[in-house]
């Protein structure tokens, strides 16, 4: 008996398709969150800041309380990026797949930790670890009055824990850096012939912090059990852990991370075996975030929202490297790549406001890659014999799927984490889709993930072999306009429907209406005109010297684009003038008539074409017979409002296009 729920029917068909082809495809996600009031550089441009770590801990606690009660929280250091003083960090939540607590500690009263309790804890830990080694005292030059930090050199030889003699004659002085004491140890002063791994205990902000040394997974799990025993005997609170998380070599746990990223907190979901799992995580995140003042969008004004700016990337992968079907199905991979290139709606409909060649997710035909090379590469991969082709897939595709500078990460479809042996963490069998923005509702983000997984199933069963399309000017002309994108998206839904995947367009309509907000709705006795915000590709400018001798490349955000969309009755009876210049309409999708219009919103330095002044406020005049209505768009406003001000006088100069094949006029052209 068929399900009455259309989504259940779709997900059942997806799972049946994968089962028929003996494929297990996981769905990963990287949604991003910001506070309700995202104040400060840490919530706009920088990765680190004064409040971000506190929000990360609060979100982790809310997620554990809501969905993963047996998880342990571990602060882990990340990469140090050029220009950043301190390494970034991740709060990892780790839990066992069998449901047993990873940190099996009996709940105790949250008593304030003091130095007496630390002494009991130190003794209990040595007893649990079966060690007679001394604890080393460390002092913090950044805060001489804080309680002592205690250091136990600690390693595991595969059979038992061992402690090395570090030969320090007096207290250890921590390095002048930020972060846990375990990351600030003067390891360069430790004899080269001994292990430099150590367990540290410290009290910060009246909380117990333990830094766990780098260990293999069995020893790491054993150490957590010993710490649980010792904290129980010391009757102290569950500690806040930090340290390096080992790989899941024993396949006994799941992991979820909250990472410091420029302007946002990035959440790294665990790989989801089904779309329903992804949907549950997104709903859980939304609920947990709301409880502590985090959300997946920014409220620009009372009636305007934007994404976080940090993205909501989706990832295809496998449950393990051994079961990764992408390695053995190169024709499936190229089907996905060809289909995405043929349909710009998949690149532009769900992304943020920054699109085009210099964005964070340029299409392969927007970067330095020529269609000739892309076509040649895909054809080669499609002719490969049966087998595991992870190496040739990676080496062929990652050089072509880049941005214009060759960055393999900043690409619409990135193979940075597929089988990139030259990149730390690059051999995970993942294909990352980056042209997706975080959105105000979890249901919207889940709908995009459902579309992606549906397309993966469809293209597995129906290989797409059509040649790549040279979209030419249309890519940054018509496909930057919402009506053209929607027409392309509907053709995708028709392809899926023919194959039995009946995705409803309603939720995607809601999403598109939010992404391309209406700025004017004009209606007069059957004549209608809608003006909506459209996409604009902001260019990178040349290198500009900065104070200190460095250089930077600014993004020119001075240009915006609008779409004018009218019905036939409007075209018959009305005329449009913008800044006094006639705007001609032409046939558009959906039996409409329309035009795109670019105009200069600002003229800040530096920007392209500095000789052209800003064209604000923007006046649109609609003339119908003897009736004349003027609408004005002020700087900072997102809608056209009726005005009695005098618009620029109508003149004989029309709004011009750079060439006749375009659908977008440019008000900057004289």
Overall description:
Helix 1 (6-20) packs parallel to helix 11 (442-461) and helix 5 packs antiparallel against helix 11. A hairpin with a 2-residue loop joins strand 30 and strand 31. Among the domains are: 33-98 and 252-295; 115-236, no CATH class; 517-666, no CATH class. The model has no long low-confidence stretch (mean pLDDT 94). It is of the alpha+beta class and 670 residues long.
List the topology elements.
Blueprint: H1 6-20, E1 26-30, E2 32-35, H2 52-66, E3 72-77, E4 89-96, H3 115-129, E5 136-139, E6 149-153, E7 155-156, E8 161-162, E9 172-173, E10 198-204, E11 207-212, H4 217-234, E12 240-243, E13 253-261, E14 264-268, H5 275-292, E15 294-295, E16 298-301, E17 304-306, E18 313-317, H6 325-328, H7 330-342, H8 345-348, H9 371-382, H10 390-397, E19 413-414, E20 431-433, H11 442-461, H12 482-498, H13 506-515, E21 518-524, E22 527-533, E23 540-545, E24 551-555, E25 559-566, H14 568-573, E26 574-578, E27 581-582, E28 586-588, E29 592-600, E30 618-624, E31 627-633, E32 641-642, E33 664-666
Parallel strand pairs: 3-12, 5-9, 11-12, 29-33
Antiparallel strand pairs: 1-18, 2-14, 2-15, 3-4, 4-13, 5-6, 6-10, 7-8, 10-11, 13-14, 16-17, 18-20, 19-20, 21-22, 22-25, 23-24, 25-29, 26-27, 26-30, 28-29, 30-31, 31-32
Helix pairs in contact: 1-11, 2-5, 3-4, 5-11, 7-9, 7-11, 11-13
